[in-house]
Write a structure and sequence with these properties.
Blueprint: E1 4-11, E2 15-17, H1 31-42, E3 44-50, H2 51-61, H3 69-80, E4 82-86, E5 98-101, H4 105-114, E6 119-122, H5 126-132, E7 138-144, E8 152-153, E9 162-170, E10 175-182
Parallel strand pairs: 1-6, 1-7, 3-4, 3-6, 4-5
Antiparallel strand pairs: 2-8, 7-10, 9-10
Helix pairs in contact: 1-3
């Protein structure tokens, strides 16, 4: 059975973006974090995005960076992995391979997880992350050493027991990855 994990960048005070969607705080130059992204991309064959994240990331990755070998690998992988776009509408899916999901989310996620293949990652904003939380098998939180004070929270205040799986520090940026599994 495939695992669905949420990989999300967040501030120490729990926000995925500033009040107006600001993400400037995520721009760090950290070779170890770049390698972590490559590791994650090598371990999946499908990514779930909200339609806004899909649109914004398509602009960047379709002609992504190629300056360094790790950049070329990120760009190649991002363009070859299947993109599953969570949307109730009918968004234009020009960054391929891609398809829309969301008509019957529980059934679609169940089919994806029961199918063969590598793990499935949710690379999304806060709203999509919250919508998919009940399907997540593992949380991979990249916590940045930033306090925004306000913004778009990653989680809704609802109790959920989590089992700690591990952590990893990135000294060049001060970012810490925390990994948890829901106890259900």
């Amino acid at each position: 059975m495939r695992k669905l994990y949420l990989s999300i960048m967040m501030t120490l005070d729990g926000f995925a973006a500033g009040p107006d969607g600001q993400l400037d705080w995520i721009m760090v130059d950290d070779p170890e974090m770049a390698e972590l992204m490559a590791e994650q991309l090598r371990g999946i064959d499908a990514m779930i995005f909200g339609h806004t994240a899909y649109r914004d990331l398509a602009e960047y990755w379709m002609d992504g960076p190629t300056g360094k070998p790790v950049d070329r690998e990120h760009t190649r992988l991002m363009n070859s992995i299947t993109k599953l776009v969570l949307s109730r509408g009918d968004p234009e899916l020009h960054w391929t391979p891609a398809r829309r999901i969301g008509a019957d989310l529980a059934a679609e996620i169940g089919e994806l997880k029961a199918g063969s293949g590598k793990d499935i990652a949710v690379f999304a904003g806060a709203e999509t992350a919250r919508e998919l939380a009940s399907f997540v098998d593992e949380y991979r939180l990249l916590v940045y050493p930033v306090l925004l004070g306000a913004g778009r929270p990653v989680f809704r205040p609802a109790p959920e027991a989590l089992e700690f799986l591990g952590s990893r520090e990135f000294s060049a940026s001060g970012v810490v990855q925390l990994r948890y599994r829901p106890v259900r």
